[in-house]
């Protein structure tokens, strides 16, 4: 008699079904659908991990822009002024300063404005 469900096959199926846990309908119960959906999910997860970096940068820029608008200067002029003043802070730190420490952020805006006018 031939064994259909050997130990390696059972382990492989278990791994797929563990990854497919929480999927809708047959995608969590049937092997073929589960394999297809897990494969698709893993590829989109890879892509979205790369996209997340750009999304975060977009969020930081939006935060900085909102904070700088209150000070009466545009985002692009602010960044250009920082470059002219040779202040090297990345956008993540600038957005954190704009959220948590507005006083020091205002100082940066002043420095940026003076560098632009000079």
Question: Describe it for me?
Answer:
It is a single chain. 75% of the residues lie in helices and 0% in strands. It has 118 residues and is mainly α. It has a single domain (7-117), classed as Ribosomal protein L20, C-terminal domain (c-terminal domain of poly(a) binding protein). Helix 1 packs parallel to helix 2, helix 3 packs across helix 5 (102-117) and helix 4 (91-100) packs across helix 5. The longest helix has 40 residues, at 31-70.
Topology:
Layout: H1 7-19, H2 31-70, H3 75-84, H4 91-100, H5 102-117
Helix pairs in contact: 1-2, 2-4, 3-5, 4-5
Taking Cα atoms only, what radius of gyration do you get, to the nearest Å?
Answer: 26 Å
CATH topology call: c-terminal domain of poly(a) binding protein
Q: Point out poorly predicted stretches.
A: none
Structural class category:
mainly alpha
Q: How much is the average pLDDT?
A: 94
First-residue to last-residue Cα separation: 89 Å
Query: What CATH architecture do you see?
Result: Orthogonal Bundle
- Biggest sheet overview: none
SSE sequence, one letter per element: HHHHH
Total domain modules: 1
> Which strand-content bin applies to the residues?
under 5%
- The CATH homologous superfamily: Ribosomal protein L20, C-terminal domain
- Which CATH class is shown? Mainly Alpha
| Count of individual helical segments | 5
Shape estimate: rod-shaped
The portion of residues assigned to helices is: over 70%
Strand tally, please?
0
């Amino acid at each position: 008699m031939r064994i259909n469900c050997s130990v390696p096959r059972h382990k492989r199926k278990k791994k797929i079904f563990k990854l497919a846990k929480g999927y809708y309908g047959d995608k969590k119960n049937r092997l073929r659908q589960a394999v297809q959906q897990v494969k698709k999910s893993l590829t989109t997860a890879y892509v979205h991990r790369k996209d997340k970096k750009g999304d975060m940068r977009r969020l930081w820029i939006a935060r900085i822009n909102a904070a700088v608008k209150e000070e009466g200067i545009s985002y692009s002029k602010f960044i250009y002024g920082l470059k002219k003043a040779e202040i090297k802070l990345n956008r993540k730190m600038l957005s954190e300063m704009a959220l948590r420490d507005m006083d020091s952020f205002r100082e940066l805006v002043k420095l940026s404005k003076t560098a632009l006018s000079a």
